[in-house]
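A quick aside before the break. I want you to see a complete sequence-to-structure record at least once, exactly as it would be stored in a machine-readable document. Don't worry about memorizing anything.
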Amino acid sequence: MTSAHDFSFRTIDGDPLPLASFEGKPILVVNTASKCGLTPQYEGLETLYRDYRGKGLVVLGVPCNQFAGQEPAEESEIKSFCTLKYNVDFPMTAKTEVKDAGRHPFYAWAQEQLGEGAVPVWNFHKILVGQKGEAIAAFGPRTDPLDPAITEAVEKAL
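That is the input. The structure line, written in tokens, reads:
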């Protein structure tokens, strides 16, 4: 695989979600969890999405239960939580493994492209993909979605 556009997830509703459907748009891929101290980052992610989606940015939430079991709910519960508590409007995938042997192939590809910094170490790790599907940057879990490092990278990717 040579591009993020070669990968596909499943939506939180169970439908196919090929990243190729976002070709021409940068994508901020974020592994998420509903019971984490960083869960309030949903608010910043939604703000980032609303501020930049008109210019093409896609924020993609990837629920993951691999970090201290902080995403134990089923997809329907995750969707309700995100919608009701944080007004999340950006696309979300089904629960997905993001590290170790069972990780989604996108995450193995991101590590090949960006190195160890692309490997999620906790919830709310962020990977920015460019319009042509290239891996641009990775941001750690504690980097706020509205941090200038992220907003400047997004603006450059647009």
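Two observations worth writing down. DSSP finds four helices and six strands in the chain. The two ends are 23 Å apart (CA to CA). We'll return to this after the break.
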